[in-house]
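Discrete fold record:
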Amino acid sequence: MRVLGIDPGLTRCGLGMVDGVPGRPPFVLAVDVVRTSAHEETGARLAVLEETMEEWVRRYRPAAVAVERVFAQHNVGTVMGTAQAAGVALLVAARHGIPTALHTPSEVKAAITGSGRAGKDQVGAMVARILRLDEVPKPADAADALALAICHVWRGQSTDRLDAARQAASGVAARQQRAYAAARTGAATSPRTGTRGPRA
């Protein structure tokens, strides 16, 4: 399973392409960090991210895209840029019909290190170890992108099955509600004439 991991950010956006299957060590195909200047207009910066992500998707053809889930932070400007970058990633994936998944930082840390409270140094060290790299990818955005991809390779299929089960359950519940509503309507309506039956 080939996964593009994206650690979204407007100033620095990490990209990591990993190939692998659950239960086996994956290997890295590419890793990079896209940088844009805070002096540039926001639209132009997002365009740079979009063009780079498009190039990666066309070149490597991932089966899935894993993006870090954005949480509100004290710095509104930072979270706004992060959310915008994440939106670009989701847009590019949707344009190519690639399934996407949002993973929280704690989910990624737990998948990579076994602890949802691991620090960035621990995550980076484990990423290098899992991918059999000679050194930890720098800056941390690169390691985080690879961690997202690894997390999805190892957990994505089970997550997809859970999502499918939830959707199936939702569909059953919706059908049951429609059937119940139809039964109530039928009980209040004469089946032959379509008019209301006699009142009690």
In short: The two ends are 64 Å apart (CA to CA).
